[in-house]
Predict the 3D structure of the following.
Amino acid sequence: MKKLIPIIAVISILAAASYFLLFNTTPTPKEAKNRFKILSFTKTRSCSSLPKFLYKAGIKRPIIDLSQDHYTGIAFYYGIEFKNVLHKKSWEKFEHLGTYTIDKNGDIYLTPNPFISIKPTTFNLQKAIYKMDSSSGELQRWLEIDDIKPTSTNPYGLISLTYNCDDKTIFASAIDKSNYKGSKGRIYHINPKDKSYEVVIKNFDALTLRIIKTTGQKLLLAGNALDNSLYAFELKNNIISQTPHKILSLPNPQLHIRKIKVIGNNKLKLEAIKFSYSLVAATQKKTRFIYTAKFNPKSNSWSIKENK
Amino acid sequence: MTKEIKISAALLVVGLGIISGLYLNKKNQTTPASSAEVVNDTSDKKIIIPDFSDIADIKEVKEYINRLQNIYKEGKSTLPLDDSELDSKGKIAQNIALESKKFLSDSKDSSGKPLHSDIMRVLPAISSMLSISAKQECKDGSCYIVEKYNFATNTTSRAVVNVDKKSIISIKKYPNMQPDISNNLTKIAKAIALKSPEIIKELGHTPTPNELSMANVRTSLKESPCEDKNHLCVAPTFANHQKEMALWAIVDLTSLKLAAAKWAGLGKTYTPACIDERTLQNRYIMKNFCQKDTTLNKDGWSFIYHLTGSDGLEIRDILYKGKKVAKSLKIVDWHVAYKGYEADKLDTSNPSIVEGRQIEFVKGDNNEYTFGYNDAMGCPMFSTSVVLAFNGPQIKPIIQDSKEVGFSITQDFRNPKWPMACNYRYQNRFDFYKDGSFRVVGINLGRGCSNKAIYRPVMRLDIDSPSNKENFSIYQNNSWQSWSKESMYQSTSQEELYSGKYLYKIASSDSEGYYIEPNRGQFKDNSRGDHERVFVSKYKESEGDEDLLTLGSCCKLKEDGVESYINGESIDSTNLVIWYVPKMQNDDREGHEYCWSDSAIDKNGNPTVKLYPCIVGPKFTPISKAK
């Protein structure tokens, strides 16, 4: 038996080495150090103003409805239990809308959405950002980006946008040109003053955008149309870094983050959808999945829970 | 140095070498990926979708079905647990439950036909499963839980049985809920996974039960991973630690067959619970049929085929014995229209959406109107289709009079909830015969929204010839009348046919080309005919050579959407495109069903779908072969 001791010892050493090197998933101190670290954040008051035409109409805290369930385009629910609706027929002229952001003046900027049926006009509508004027409430085709080219194999164009309160600019994302093999999406940085724009991020399909400030950072958060993760781009002096840092992933790999909201200290509300760059054909009663993601700054980790 | 020391040293060197190699490999794999690569990481691992098949042809499944048939013969409908899965009190509890009319109340349909039901678990009552009053009665440990699953209605029933008092305390039914499965069904699921030819082929050997993990049975599956969420499905896994890969199988226990399988890395944080049949189908179809062309050479025919974004299955560059036949054959759309009455009461101020489609309304005469939508078929991702490809193209022999006379290639397209109302299933089929003839076939498998549906598939047939110059003719007044300009013809279905078969002809010379045989029900497939409208246009790339968006209106029954391509241009000896638009009306009358489908119960008590297809489309026969 004693003779076998060296062999047993070697096998034990190899087993231990295998475990630590191959199966142990705890990050090494070096890996932990390299991991992008975000700092604490909390809910802050937005610089966005209530559109003046709503204020004049006595509508103070409306819910902006882009669900397209009952109204094409945009509708505002207001009053007790939000039973009243403001919707104009003229707000349907650009068909279905998907996301919005509001600036300091109360102007609402909106992105289109190829909702269900493709019409001859649908692709052209995806190339523009629409603006609802704060004073008049009129909806207009505000900015067209010629580079955007939806097709029958990817009917999407501009898909999301967010307002940067600090320099009064807009980040907008487009996901046309992407295909099954990979991402060709862009994030545009737009100056509303002169409608100039430039592509600041390439090859990233942002299904949603949201700017947040942590205790020492400013981040552009982006839900990815191609995976189930939330990414962060650093904004230093309002200049965006080129590296997307994956900060969390939803437990369900089939879902994609479509809306991001800060709801408390280190807490995000994430709305997720199934998304396959095609129309809403897979009719499911439950189309949105809501998660609460809580960040622990000490361990630089997230706990994610689905709200049912 | 002793022999043992030498062995130890050799072991150490070899072992460290292997571990280092594996470690470096792992490190490479876990390097942070760009966002584009992240997608590939979750989608590019190999997916296996079995061909359409009936229940798995294996011993364990046959035995299980025999057991079911035996209890049905005895007038029963619920398969009890084997004694091996029960303790002595459990046996009593099961017997008491199986004698309860209330517990078995959903075990037969209204006609008395048994609905497949299995007892899944019998176990001592757990406090958390009991009501307050039951907790009191059961605190001495005298109670058992008996769980039954009805496969046909996707319902779980749970009875709390007091074994000592031989009475049932409560019975609750949980519609659309699935229980943990019995050991017997676990064995069957394992057997299906272990013996499926697709799995054996993937693993490269016949696996043993030890290679299989069934950790992910019902308890961790939030919802059925199968395409049909009402099916009871489980996901056994084969782990290959050497390759750091696992083969995940999705086994459908309602249909008793393998639904799908997928290779994935062992280090995934998600489980098969998150990967469902539809997702696997989508990735499999995208990777194999939407992203690349497949070449087929068979019976003298050669062509490429692929799935399109919105024009269904397209067959391209078709040659027969090396000669050009067609540049492209495809069905670009299905127009679906329903008739309605009281058009004056119609409110179209807000869009109407049914099952994901925006409905179009067209007011007509006599206070009638038509409403419906255009259905595009195509790839399940990156497309503008609403009826999505299911499984890949299936190639099968055509047998006539016990003789193989050619082959067909068929692609299935379905709405996810078919055969529920307002969900659709279409098939594109292309028949290629050994004699050089071919047929383009559109198949509608229902079910639609009502019994007054008019379906019109729009077929785009870009026939080719060696000279690329064709002429189109129609047989009228006992002779072939050539068309000189782009035109349309509405068939009466009563026309006299050349040689009793052919109404149209496309040819580049007297002997080169095809006679076109419209379907008048002669193809022995229960068709009620094409009732077609035919358009012929000069070939233009922009007119459908690439993916076409939906054409025209669903519901203007006098238009097919092709009209915009018919401008009176000369089509004399030029490259032509034939647009062939059959028209059929569905029928739900009992015994006369057509373009229809119905949910039913099969002989094993399981849910099934009765199909009443309507099959349309013309056959092209080489002029030289026409009789």
In short: The longest helix of chain B spans residues 3-29.
